[in-house]
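Q: My hope is that you can spare some time for a protein that puzzles me. Underneath my words sits a plain record pairing an amino acid chain with its backbone structure tokens. Those tokens are not coordinates but codes from a learned vocabulary of shapes. Thank you; the sequence and its tokens follow:
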Amino acid sequence: MIKRGLPQGPGWRRYNFDGYGQKPDGGAFDGTGEGRCWPILTGERAHYELAAGRDPMPWIKTMAGFANEGGMLPEQVWDADALTNGRMKPGGPTGAAMPLCWSHAEYLSLVRSASDGVCFDRIEPVHQRYTIQKTASSIEMWTLAHQLQEIGYGKTLRIILDQPASVVWSVNDWQTVREIEATDSRIGCWSADFPAGDLAAASAVVFTFCLNSHWLGHNFRVRISSK
């Protein structure tokens, strides 16, 4: 939905209904407008293609094609029909910043990545751990913004909150109750773990918590799968 076909090749907008860019008549952004394609996002797609084992050269050529006669890459390129007054042409620079150093850095990184055969800023220990060794986490994380509905059997459930809290929980619908104080991570959040061993025989864990001396007033339930 955010992809546009341009004379140089494919371009992408940042997101649907982006309002940061030239107006439909080519007028300058004045607090409202329409976001256009960003050459840097073609570079990002090229990195994705390289990481997926495919040839990034078509996207490298496209990104280079967005540059002006002096080799400067713009922040955005026009991705609508050419205006009759000639001010804006498909694939040409808009009135946005040019050169955009961020775009140039992306291009340099991309060319180096293509030469190396791997993404230049790939963190090798992370790649080895998760892509090659396929190391899995034994912890599932729950937050108010990301409320898991189910976790795998044998996993520890970690509740993460943005302030100190007492967490009460049960694996048998409150027939028995346990309470734990969230631990300060010292990076702006607090966490409480429900160990895998304590969840092993349960079909679900139910919990709530106390914030600022006030109980939340409702419970949360996370199912425990049999696999």
Observations:
- The two ends are 37 Å apart (CA to CA).
- Helices lie at 39-51, 57-65, 101-116, 124-132, 196-199.
